[in-house]
Amino acid sequence: MELKITDLTKDFRKTRAVNRVNYTFHSGVYGLLGVNGAGKTTLMRMLTTLLNPTSGAVIWDGQDVFQMDKDYRRLLGYLPQDFGVYPDFTVQDYLMYIATLKGIKPAVAKTRVEEMLHLTGMTQFKGKKMKALSGGMKRRAGIAQAVLNDPKILILDEPTAGLDPSERIRFRNLISELAADRIVLLSTHIVSDVESAAGQIILMKDGEFLVTGTSDEIIASCPDRVWICKVPKEQVLYCHQTYRVSNVKTLSSGAELRILSPEAPMSDAVQEETSLEDVFLSYFGEKSGGEDGNGMV
Amino acid sequence: MAMVWYEIKKILLRPSCQIALLILLVLAGQSCYRVLYGSEGVSWTNELGQTETGCAAARKLRNAQREWSGTLDQELLEKALAELKRIDSAPDDPSLDEVTQSNIKFSQKQKLMPIRTLLNLSFKGGYEWQYGSYFVAEKVEPEQLPHFYENRIQHLKEWLYDEDSTGYTRFSETEKQYLIRNYETLETPFQVGYTAGWEQAFSASYYTILYGTILIAFLISGVFANEFRWKADSVYFSTELGRKEGSAAKLTAGFLFTTVVYWSVLLAVNLFILIFLGFDGGNCPVQATFHYWNSIHHITFFQLSLLQLADGYVLWMFISALVMLVAAASRSVSISVCVPSVLIMVPDMLERKVDFEKALSLLTLFPHRMTSIYANRTLILYTILGNVVTPAFIQRVLFSSLTILMFAVCYRVYRRKQIR
């Protein structure tokens, strides 16, 4: 089981969304981390054959996926970022329909749909119309449709966007359950999602893979260290302008800052253990807040 | 087939589509009601001179005219003329007002109306209907009757070669000869009789087919646009069967849905009207009635109905194919609904506004004319590569071909939209 991308590039008019990316995926969970506009969705849409690459190739076990056509799509499960549904279908209708589109035989489909409803905790809502579902429940239905065909390659684009914390925890547990014997590529700009679920993490920036590796390897690759400094109120602004501050905690005497820097920013600074969030800030800087402010969660 | 069923289910489950289907049923029901009880529907004037409408009136009219139905030969013509003259010469009741007296006479003549109408048309003195022609029948003399069928051909010839007539400049010499040959080859004597059921079924079908095109356009518009509208396209196209088979399923669903809705509604309308107004007269040539006396189509009323339904089906399929093509190309429901609506409505409005003679030959070829082409009293012909053809022939070939072509193009366009 090997999904290989070689020199994969996608241009949209004058913009290069993905730039000569090379990587090989094997069985396991991969977290694709990057700010909005990093090229994650474009990469994923190429992996699902919804976008033609400008150059380069996507190879599954030695075969070009665009040549494989539906033989490749048979292996695929996809939950897009902008996930729309058929509003007048019930959850069960919807899943049965997607099962049909995935070429699952009706008798098998019925059982699979029941299983997926159970797995995603949607059994009691199976008769509810899709348009009546909350955002979180729609996402659950989205996960269910993605795994209906027991895919070898599961691509989840921002699956936790808009979910509340308990839904996100539930979702992360679900990913862990689904991870066995398949490639799961999970794109997000929410650090904690990949930190807990992904065995391999890919940091993507400006259409390129910046760093890849396990969580520890990514942390080790970070040029910055984390320092805790207590400063008076009047120095907070100066510190913000001079260093990368990942967190500010207000104290009665001033503020406790979490600063990213290769060297100790001040003599009384205490070094802390680096987390993936710190690495994210270190690599993506000001952009890491993201448009919806979720980058640091 | 499961994919096709889900596509149809997507249409049927939309509340707006359910409303559109309901409107279509109301439209069909209203067409039926209009021919039964409306001012243009079948009516019966009783012996007191009062007008009745509805099924009972139709039954009375049918029974009365049944006695005077059959082959319209010299014997029947003479018999009918004598009866008309007898009724006309009967003394009036001086105690009644003029209108009531006229209505009572009309009530007595109703049984003869199909023959009386043809006498008016044959002996009116020209090709085109003129004011006063309505009262010609009773003035015809028995010795004129042998010219009854001949007059139809003679009027055409005069109209075509009289420099002051509209027919003189409208047709080429080849077309004129074609028309004369056509008139001469019409089989006579006619079968004549009560044809109101078929005529009213034609009228009701016309409105149902024409306005139904707008509704079917609305119903079908989502088939190729819904995935984009609901942002469900990424999942749909990333599935194993969502591309090639998905496109085929959508086309099949559009085709099947249009077919089932069309035939269900139109057969229901026709059967309803024919059951209530009667199947009599199906074997009468269309020329045996007022509206079709000048027709160049040698068909019976039964054949007219079949052709209208077939042409209406071609029209609906054409509209469906067009809507699906526009939706596949534009990914928009609203644009796909607008295009056929404009194609149907604009020529219809133009026809009423612009100079009729000049615009007619072009506008006749537009789809809105598809189901009324046989009812068109103005003769239009086209000469293509030396052959004279009727608008009906051109339309049938043109729209059938375009429909098949658009189905094929729609499939290709949608397939190309799947990957960017």
Tell me the number of structural domains of chain B. 2
- State the end-to-end distance of chain A: 33 Å
Main sheet summary of chain B: 2 strands, antiparallel
Corresponding CATH architecture of the largest domain in chain A: 3-Layer(aba) Sandwich
- What CATH calls the topology of the largest domain in chain A is Rossmann fold
Order of strands, widest sheet of chain A = 6-7-8-3-9-10
Q: Pick out the low-confidence regions of chain B.
A: none
Any idea what the shape of chain B is? elongated
Kindly name the structural category of chain A. alpha/beta
- The computed structural class of chain B is mainly alpha
Distance between the termini of chain B: 28 Å
Tell me about the biggest sheet of chain A? 6 strands, mixed
Radius of gyration of chain A: 21 Å
If helices are DSSP runs of H or I spanning 4 or more residues, what is the number of helices of chain B? 17
Average residue-wise pLDDT of chain A = 88
Estimate what percentage of residues of chain B fall within beta strands. under 5%
The CATH homologous superfamily name of the largest domain in chain A equals P-loop containing nucleotide triphosphate hydrolases
Q: Approximately how much helix is present in the residues of chain A? A: 25-40%
* Largest interface summary: A-B, 32 and 28 residues
User: Please, what is the oligomeric state?
Assistant: heterodimer
Q: What is the structure about, briefly put?
A:
The complex is a heterodimer of chains A (297) and B (420). Chain A is of the alpha/beta class and 297 residues long. Chain A has 11 helices and 14 strands.
Written description of the protein model:
The complex is a heterodimer of chains A (297) and B (420). Chain A is α/β, with parallel strands linked by helices and 297 residues long. Chain A folds into 2 domains: 3-220, P-loop containing nucleotide triphosphate hydrolases (Rossmann fold), CATH 3.40.50.300; 223-273. In chain A, 33% of the residues lie in helices and 29% in strands. Chain A has helices spanning 40-47, 65-68, 70-73, 91-101, 106-119, 135-147, 165-178, 191-197, 215-221, 236-242, 276-284; strands spanning 3-12, 15-25, 28-33, 55-60, 63-64, 76-79, 153-157, 183-188, 200-205, 208-213, 225-231, 244-250, 255-261, 270-272. In chain A, strand 7, helix 7 (165-178) and strand 8 (183-188) form a beta-alpha-beta unit. Chain A is globular, with a radius of gyration of 21 Å. Residues 289-297 of chain A have low confidence and may be disordered. Chain B has 420 residues and is mostly helical. Chain B has 2 domains: 2-38 and 193-417, no CATH class; 70-192, no CATH class. In chain B, 65% of the residues lie in helices and 4% in strands. Chain B is elongated. Chains A and B meet through strand 6 and helix 4 of A and helix 1 and helix 12 of B.
